[in-house]
Predict the structure of S-adenosyl-L-methionine-dependent methyltransferase.
Amino acid sequence: MSPPPTLDPDTSDQLQHLPPASPGPSGGSLLNILRVLVPGGKVLLLEHGRSSWGWWNRSLDEGAQRHRSKWGCWWNRDILAIVHQAGLVVEYVSRWHFGTSYIIVASPARATHRDLAIP
């Protein structure tokens, strides 16, 4: 596994806990991050979601409602699909814990990311 690409030290950093797996429109928090991202900025995500193993996904799906009720988030969302739907291009991804934990470095797919509407 290679390390994530180096982030530009001349940009300001912002850390928020706005998981795509939380309630509400999928990726809504990502659209807000894109809206305020500096030109040339990158998004670093540490997320949990669907596994890369089908048998583990069946277990996640069976317990998803119970997990949501107890912890407030969906643990079986397709994180990479949410990231792509939000208009991000994945530059780096690393997965572990049966593929359910993700580190993602992404950048906006469009130059006009500040014009995105937030649902």
Summary: The longest strand covers residues 88-96. The chain has three helices and three strands. The mean pLDDT is 78. The two ends are 36 Å apart (CA to CA).
